[in-house]
Amino acid sequence: MSRQRSLEQERMQAAWQCVNAVRNKAFASRYAQLARSAPADIQLNGLAQTVAFWRAKGKGESDNEHTVLYNNLQNWVKRQMRIQNSQSLLEWIMADTTTTPQYRRATREAIAFLQWLKRFAEAELSQEKTT
Fold first, then answer.
1. How many other CB atoms are found less than 10 A from the CB of residue 17?
2. Do 16 and 23 meet the contact criterion of CB atoms below 8 Å apart?
3. Staple partner for 66: which of 11, 58, 59, 125, CB 3.0–4.6 Å?
């Protein structure tokens, strides 16, 4: 029980740091919009398709809301799933060694993290709506 509470606190803290990191960025409002729909996107489309979409839309640009959200989620899921640093989340999902139970656990962890990110983005970035 206390481990679950601790993990929930870790998710909350990581999500808070992610939202604070984009607070004054030019793309903050677009990031907030993307974060609001992120948990539902994963539930509807699946983890692999959603992260592949974010990666494609971000085009590797560091000041793009899709790239930043992908990196935020990737860092969290990689840490929780103990994925090697040299391997991206997408590479791990596509690897032959990744099992269905691991993929399901990663999906659950991604949605749990994104729920916190969504809440903090709504609370902290909603006033920055400009576009």
1. 11
2. no
3. 58
DSSP-H helix ranges across the chain:
2-22, 28-45, 47-58, 65-81, 89-94, 100-125
Q: What is the mean pLDDT of the chain?
A: 93
Distance, CA of 37 to chain centre: 11
Asked if residue 107 lies in contact with residue 47, where contact means CB atoms within 8 angstroms, the answer is yes
**Mean pLDDT score, 29-35:** 96
* 128 band by pLDDT with thresholds 50, 70 and 90: very low
Instruction: Report the distance separating Cα 108 and Cα 50, nearest Å.
Output: 14
Euclidean distance between CA atoms 59 and 67, whole angstroms: 7
Question: Do the beta carbons of residue 41 and residue 123 sit within 8 Å?
Answer: no
- Kindly state the tokens that stand for 29: 């409002």
Would you mind telling me the total number of residues written for the chain in this entry? 131
Rounded Cα distance between 59 and 81, Å, is 25
How is residue 123 written in tokens?
């609370």
CA–CA gap between residue 64 and residue 30 (Å, rounded):
9
The two three-digit tokens of residue 2, written as one number: 């206390």
Q: Which two tokens stand for residue 3?
A: 């481990």
94: its two tokens = 């596509």
